[in-house]
From TrEMBL:
Similarity annotation: Belongs to the short-chain dehydrogenases/reductases (SDR) family.
Domain of life: Bacteria
Keywords: NADP, Oxidoreductase
Keyword match NADP: yes
Keyword Oxidoreductase found: yes
PANTHER family linked to this entry: DEHYDROGENASE_REDUCTASE SDR FAMILY PROTEIN 7-LIKE, RETINOL DEHYDROGENASE-RELATED
Descriptive protein name: Short-chain dehydrogenase
SUPFAM superfamilies per the UniProt record, alphabetical: NAD(P)-binding Rossmann-fold domains
GO MF annotations in UniProt: oxidoreductase activity
Amino acid sequence: MKDFAGRTAFVTGGANGVGIGLVRQLLNEGCKVAIADIRQDSIDKALKSLDNREVMGVQLDVSSREGFKAAADEVEAKFGPVSILCNNAGVNLFQPIEESSFDDWDWLLGVNLHGVINGVMTFVPRMVARVKAGEQKGGHVVNTASMAAFLAAGTPGIYNTTKFAVRGLSESLHYSLLQYEIGVSVLCPGLVKSYIYASDDIRPDELKGAMKPVNSEAVERLAGIHEFGMEPDVIGARVIEAMKANRLHIFSHPDHKDEMREIFDEIIAEYQDYPKDPGHDQRVAFEKFRRDAFAQARAKSRAADF
C-alpha cells in the first residue's frame, strides 16, 4: 500500500503495547483511526494522549462476532469505509499445555485466533465488495502473530498454537487477496514493551473456573523483562514500511534471524532419503502443478506494486 492519507484504519488491542504504536504511526500517515480495545479506561487514556487527531475509540471484545459487526458499523458510520485492518489484540498464559484447562484454551483461542478470524470475516468481505464496485482502491490487513508463530518451546503452549494459526491464516489470505490489490501481512514481533504479562486482569469471569492461581511473583518478573521490550512506536514504524513494500512477513526484531536460520536448517535436516514407494512418480507429477502454481503466486506477490 502506497497511499495512506484519508483512509480509515481499525486497530484492535489499540490502546496499549503494539496497538498504540500502530495507531500513532497510522495517524502520522494521515489516516483516520479507530482504537478498539476491551478496556474502556485504556481507550480513554489513549485518546487523551492523541489530542487534535482524527481518532475515535470503540469498546470491543474481539471474541464476539456480534460485537465486531456493531463496532465496524459504528466506525464506518463516523469515519467512512475501513480499508486498513490491524488485528492486534492478544493475551497470553505463560504455562505448558499439559498444565492447562479447556477454559484456558477457550480464552486464548477466543482472543488470539477467533479475534483475528472475526476481524477478517467482518471487514475483508466489505473491502472486496468495495474494490469490485470501484468504490475503493485496495487496502491492507495486518495480523499480529508473534515470533511464537515460528519458535515453539514448551511454554507458552496455547499461545504458540494460536500464533501458528494466525500465521497460516495470514499467509493464505495474502495470496487470495492479491487479485483485489489488498495486501496482507503477518507481524511477528519478539519482546515488546507491553502489558501482555498481565493478561489475567482481563480474563472473562466465565472462563476462570479452571484457571491456575495467578503467580504474582512471576508476573512481577515478567513486568521487569518487558521493560526492555521494543518500543511500540518503533514497531509501528516498521509495520508501515512493510505495508508500503507489501511484505508478507514483518519481522520487527532482527535479533531472531540467526535462530530462525538454525531452526529451518534443523527442519530440512529431518527429511529422509526414503526409497520410492508405489505411486511416487504419479504423486510427484501431481504435486508439480500445485508447486508451480504456488511459485507463480509468490512471484506475483514479490512483483506487486500497489
